[in-house]
Design goal:
single chain; mainly beta; Jelly Rolls; Immunoglobulin-like; TIM Barrel; 5 domains; 9-stranded antiparallel beta sheet; 7-stranded mixed beta sheet; 9 helices; signal; glycosidase
Length: about 950
């Protein structure tokens, strides 16, 4: 949305907005505070129109207007480029900006700076026709100019900016514009003026530790300054304590001070306690020359070689994700609201960390990470070799650290990405960082850390080359389409949690980078498989992995539990928080019953109690007990819901209590009402029961047709037994009281493996039973080997074009893969049909098609027919609902899962899914393609009841 806002009505704000150097107030700013005036808007939903000229591409060659901040492609100008494109053919694309602004007369005696939070890529700035300073290079870095001498006070001023999309520095181009992400052009972050008193504090760098000790570098060139005064206040600006200076030293342009705060609470992601540090610069009379404040958190970071990464004395396991600053309709221009939304989703997934990929984010994202609680790796932008040249690299490192130094959320600096490191810059971070945070090289063994990318499960678990390094991949489980992320995470996390030197890792990545193509009628474009990597869709649509991650990374780990008649209510638990004791967590137990297929889907609670959790310190194991109500065995399921101290849900675990047959017998009608008859003609066995006509093949006994009230329900061609080659030995039709049975017995075959010592195996069986009330029963027994690689189960045909939705009792609402079983909930679900290809098209979740676990019953809704209901009376059965469409760009077939024949299937095993770089079998035990089915002489049974 564009807004025309004249500079005369632009809001004057104080520069304390979460980390800025001034105090927030509802009163008029006074002469000793820093004032701030936006020339642009503040984000994607708040733009200000500037004059604009684009040199090439869409809407080029003419002066018009554009909203600032923005990426000009998303406003309909220029050309789109994905980083791997050869943009050199359009390297001269540039934009020119003009903006007139008024300046108040009272600023005449101030020091004025103009601040650009981010411009892509080379920026030449003029004020009233004169250069403000040297051309700035590098898109993602805040830069500023002192412009007091160029301004006209009390009258209009002209700001002109020329932005070259490509940099004149080839190493900047390689780092930023040939990388693996969308690249844009424009003034994409806010622009504002700062007005300081002439005698001022330029900036502050703070090191506030968990024990309350604090040191600060206060940069000032004031000759009138004689002393400093520091105090601590809460976020409502209530002063908590004066901070007496225990040490103070001066050097050219900088004062260094030390002090200590008392009775403070330390900052950590589980309890992100923040304070304001108030700093006053005083003259020899004790009068305030300039006052400023910084929002800080007290915390201590240590990287102990051969041990781990510690915060406040606690060794950390990073549960992290990589995150681009991105929104589909605005590109790299975001907003504080979007930062809040993204951090809240990360926290909801029980993450505790985020890596800024692959450049410093908007300042408001770091503000939100501070306030809501996330560990951050802050990174400069590089991409493979060649690396940044040293001259421009040193400027970029300084701009990054100087802007972000005071954020307690930042634990580490990353000197670029994937071999793009210029090692000459490694020690530059310490020049600007008073906290002396460690520097890492993502995808490298460097100093104390091994941050290898995309390790296979076995390499990760058993790598020995750098076994003494702290091991945490800054990218792993590349989430292309529906693969990766939650798929494989359970196996990886067991390794990460239990390996002493493993410090967790960072998934790739948070959201699909699908950009709105203003040049292609507004389609969402992920540039093929380059940017379809998200846990959430482009607009934050939650994919299945979102909930798998939420369960796997729950800070409360409950061992897998199955409720049987001998259930005693005891659960084994581990506190996987780093700073929170388990008795601070609330837990509720709820015993519930469900409606049947004809019900409303409403859940009935029969008992609800509070669970007392033990007082376990972080990373300690124990157990808790759920009280068993007298009627607990009449419930269908137990829910355990854990709630964090801030009131957010950690996760809800669900446990079925009754087996499918026990629940389904409540809903299956076995009355003998209605008439039944049978005859054979033209190769078909026809049975008519209560107005429903069933036709079976006389030769194979497969169901060929179902007709009700003269209308065909196109469910047929089954049950086909997967991977079944045995011949039929006999077919028998038994006419009994109130029902007809059709029994198919297959020839016995030698199915023994070569190592077996006996060969006594009975045959496979299919038995249909048609009841006089129209109910159709199916009982299948399948013999076979212990170890099976293919599918074990049966399948039917049903046209996808006839399906409008389904309602079912089982795990949901998302589909599962063999290596992504967690994150579902057992209850009655209802999904409408969709044809979403995860991360590629549709973006409607949950996906309708796929495998669904723990099936009890399913009501298939038809478009031009009445549909039907299937009761699955066999335990541990998966529903296969139709066949998902393969994504268009999966050349290595790692995330395109092959489905069996048919449309609707009932199976005992399902396949795993891979990632962009690995097949499922490389991602841990759950990705193994082999399935164990016990003794060879014990049949697999599938018992279904159909209501048409």
């Amino acid at each position: 949305m564009k807004m025309n806002i004249s500079s005369s009505v632009l809001l004057f704000t104080l520069l304390c907005m979460f980390g800025a150097n001034a105090m927030q107030s509802n009163t008029e700013p006074n002469e000793v505070e820093t004032e701030k005036m936006y020339l642009s808007g503040t984000g994607k939903d708040d733009m200000v129109d500037w004059e604009f000229f684009c040199s090439d591409g869409m809407n080029s060659g003419k002066w018009t207007t554009i909203g600032v901040p923005s990426c000009w492609e998303l406003q309909g100008f220029g050309y789109y480029n994905y980083g791997k494109d050869d943009f050199k053919v359009r390297k001269n694309e540039y934009g020119r900006y003009k903006y007139q602004f008024d300046l108040p007369k009272k600023w005449r005696n101030k020091e004025i700076k103009i601040v650009f939070e981010g411009v892509m890529t080379d920026a030449e700035v003029k004020i009233n026709g004169k250069l403000a300073g040297e051309v700035h290079q590098g898109a993602f870095y805040e830069f500023k100019y002192s412009i007091s001498h160029l301004l006209k006070y009390g009258e209009k001023n002209m700001l002109e900016v020329k932005v070259n999309k490509a940099s004149s520095n080839s190493s900047i181009n390689h780092a930023e514009r040939e990388a693996d992400f969308w690249i844009f052009g424009g003034i994409f972050r806010p622009v504002y003026l700062q007005a300081f008193p002439k005698e001022n504090i330029e900036r502050v760098a703070i090191n506030a530790k968990a024990d309350g000790s604090l040191e600060a570098d206060i940069f000032t060139t004031s000759k009138k300054a004689q002393s400093l005064r520091l105090s601590l206040s809460d976020l409502d600006h209530n002063k908590l304590q004066e901070l007496p200076l225990t040490d103070i030293s001066k050097e050219q342009g900088k004062w260094h001070v030390s002090t200590k705060a008392h009775d403070i609470k330390s900052w950590n992601p589980e309890s992100p306690q923040l304070y304001f540090l108030n700093i006053e610069l005083l003259n020899k009379k004790g009068e305030i020359l300039h006052k400023t404040l910084e929002r800080i958190g007290f915390r201590t970071v240590e990287v102990l070689e051969g041990d781990g990464i510690y915060v406040n004395g606690q060794r950390i396991k990073f549960k992290g994700v990589n995150r681009h600053s991105f929104y589909p309709s605005s590109g790299r221009t975001t907003s504080k609201e979007l930062s809040i939304e993204h951090v809240k989703m990360m926290k909801d997934m029980n993450m505790n960390a985020v890596r800024m990929s692959h450049y410093p984010p908007d300042t408001h994202f770091l503000d939100v990470a501070d306030s809501l609680g996330l560990f951050v790796i802050d990174e400069v932008c590089t991409w493979h070799s060649p690396h940044l040249d040293t001259k421009v690299g040193r400027k970029i490192v300084k701009e990054t650290v100087v802007r972000d130094v005071n954020h307690p959320s930042i634990l580490l600096w990353a000197n670029g990405n994937e071999t793009g490191w210029n090692t000459a810059l490694d020690d530059d971070y310490a020049k600007w960082d008073i906290q002396q945070r460690e520097v890492i090289h993502p995808w490298n063994i460097f100093r104390k850390t091994n941050t290898m990318h995309y390790p296979s499960y076995h390499v990760f678990a058993y790598d020995t080359y750098a076994k003494d390094k702290i091991y945490f991949p800054t990218e792993f489980l590349h989430g292309l389409y529906d693969g990766g992320h939650g798929a494989g995470l359970d196996d990886y996390w067991k390794q990460m949690w239990n390996m002493p030197l493993a410090a967790g890792g960072f998934l790739w990545d948070f959201a699909d980078e699908a950009v709105v193509r203003t040049d292609k009628k507004g389609i969402l474009d992920t540039d093929g498989n380059h940017a379809a990597d998200g846990i959430v869709g482009p607009y934050g649509e939650k994919e299945a992995s979102y909930f798998s991650i939420k369960e796997i990374w729950s800070p409360i780990y409950i061992e897998d539990r199955y409720i049987k008649p001998d259930f005693n209510g005891v659960f084994r638990i581990e506190n996987r928080y780093h700073f929170t004791h388990l008795n601070e967590i609330k837990m509720a137990a709820k015993w519930v019953r469900f409606d049947g297929p004809k019900g409303t889907g409403k859940i009935k609670t029969i008992s609800e109690t509070t669970v007392a959790l033990p007082n376990l310190a972080p990373v300690i194991k124990g157990e808790f007990k759920v009280d068993l109500p007298n009627n607990w065995q009449t419930a269908d399921a137990l829910y355990l819901t854990a709630t964090a101290p801030n009131g957010s849900e950690i996760f809800t675990w669900s446990y079925p209590i009754k087996i499918p047959k026990k629940i389904n017998e409540t809903y299956i009608d076995l009355s003998e009402e209605g008439e039944i008859s049978t005859h054979t003609e033209a190769g078909r066995i026809k049975v008519v029961a209560n107005g429903i006509q069933y036709s079976f093949s006389e030769k194979t006994t497969l169901l060929e047709e179902v007709k009700k009230a003269g209308k065909i329900i196109p469910f047929n061609n089954g049950p086909i037994i997967f991977d079944h080659k045995d011949k039929i030995e006999s077919v028998k039709i038994n006419k009994l009281k109130g029902k007809v049975e059709i029994l198919t017995v297959f020839e016995a075959s030698d199915k023994s493996p070569s190592w077996a010592s006996h060969k006594e195996y009975s045959s496979d069986v299919i038995k249909w039973t048609v009841h006089s009330n129209g109910l159709l029963d199916l009982h299948v027994e399948i013999k076979g080997k212990k170890i099976v690689k293919g599918f074990k189960g049966i399948t039917f045909s049903f046209p996808e074009s006839e399906v409008s939705g389904m309602k079912w009792l089982g795990d949901g609402p998302y589909r599962v893969w063999r290596n992504r079983m967690k994150g579902t909930k057992f209850q009655v679900w209802e999904n409408d049909y969709n044809n979403t290809v995860t991360g590629e098209s549709g973006f409607v979740y949950p996906e309708f098609k796929g495998f669904f676990s723990s099936l009890y019953w399913v009501k298939v809704k038809g478009k031009n027919n009445n549909g039907f209901t299937v009761y699955c009376n066999s335990e541990n059965t998966f529903l296969r609902m139709l066949t998902p469409q393969h994504p268009k760009e999966d050349p290595n077939h790692r995330v395109s899962v092959d489905f069996p024949e048919g449309d609707i299937s009932f199976v005992k095993n399902i396949p795993a899914i891979g990632t962009k770089f690995q097949t499922g079998d490389k991602m841990g035990p759950q990705g193994n393609s082999e399935n164990y089915f016990g003794n060879d002489d014990e049949p697999i049974t599938i018992h279904l009841s159909f209501e048409f």
